[in-house]
Amino acid sequence: MEGRRIGTIALVGLAALAGCGGGERQDANEPEGDFPVELVDATFPAKQQLAQKSDLVITVRNPGKKTIPNIAVTVDGFDFRKDEPDLADPERPQFIINGVPREIGGFPESQEAAPGGCTTAYVNTWACGPLKAGKQRSFRWNVTAVVAGPYKVDYRVAAGLTGKASATGPDGGPAPRGTFRGTVSNTVPKARVADDGKTVVTETP
Length: 205
Fold this sequence. Notes:
The structure is a single chain. The chain has 205 residues and is mainly β. Helix content is 0%, strand content 47%. It has no helices and 17 strands. It is elongated, with a radius of gyration of 19 Å.
């Protein structure tokens, strides 16, 4: 099982906000102002099992007349804090983002099953660039539960990375945000190989 652990926000300076791969900074020439954002849908299974893969999907729409400079979503709660004095790092993953096989330049690579091309220097924030008026964008993460117990995952939507562009609700109120709550069961799904000898079939006990 390949994946990446997500922790708390790591601010590494505005100069590094370009994310992986170089190129123009994601905060370059970010305009100031308020930009309305509508939350179209937000889903994440409330009941999950250890080693079960699931999708967290957040879909937003631009209901305004101006292009949103850099539509972004921050997700907190893939990790939890374990308060034990002997731990060097108290942050522990409850969900990891799965890896997806890719071929880049003819070589096999593994990338995150997270919003593609939206990586930032903030470890739990994804920014997917401009969102034109009337258009919508879905952010999707494919994750695996690795620790049993109750979970709480918070999300919030932004219109940019620097604070110059401020997201609001469609009516001018607070920017869209929300919380997923649920439980990860310690029952591990059963897996078997299908008749073709290749496909792995997961069965819920």
